Amino acid sequence: MLKLCFVCLGNICRSPIGEGVMRHLLKQAGLASAVEVDSAGTAGYHAGELPDARARAAGRRFGVEVSGCARQFKRADFARFDYVLAMDAANFADLAALAADAGARDKLHLLRSFDPESPRGASVPDPYYGEDSDFDEVLRICQTACARLLEKLRRDHEL
Ligand code: 4NP
Q1: Is the CB of 14 under 6 A from ligand 1?
Q2: Residue 116 is part of which domain span?
């Protein structure tokens, strides 16, 4: 089974949204049992919390379940996952610093790097200090990037 982990800073806004969007797409594609999806944060200060209420509400507006319990990404997680999907450049840099070897480093990607229409190095913007419309934008960005990522997974892993 292929294993993906979406990672943002707090694991209460962007990465649970990415996780929910990807799980939704996998279900639609009949691939829910072929790919496992999780999420985590580079920081642990929201560990144990539900996703932010605004993230859950945005998920409902898009027909996507945004759920889970926040946790911090640990070095050992690199061994558990095949793809570690960073939401922004700061998350990417923190994860790269945590990666113990080239094998771990090879698993690390910026989520939007799978969307050929995103500018090089593009981030999923942090909506935490924003408004509902910023959460909707995160949903839209994740829908596009996750759809492209799923196409790549199907090609590369013959799903
Ligand atoms: P996330 O958003 O990284 O998308 O979960 C944030 C959550 C919490 C904070 C910042 C961003 N915070 O500063 O507490």
Answers
A1: yes
A2: 2-157
Question: What's the confidence (pLDDT) of residue 153?
Answer: 98
Please state the domain count of the chain.
1
d(CA 9, CA 124): 11
The average pLDDT across 93-111 equals 97
Q: What's the CA gap between 6 and 11, in Å, rounded?
A: 9
- For β-strands 108-110 and 35-41, DSSP reports them as unpaired
* pLDDT 10s digits, 1-16: 999 999 999 999 999 9
Kindly give the distance from the C-alpha atom of residue 148 to the centroid of ligand 1, in angstroms, as a whole number: 25
Q: Check if the beta carbon of residue 157 is closer than 8 Å to that of residue 36.
A: no
CATH number, domain of 6, equals 3.40.50.2300
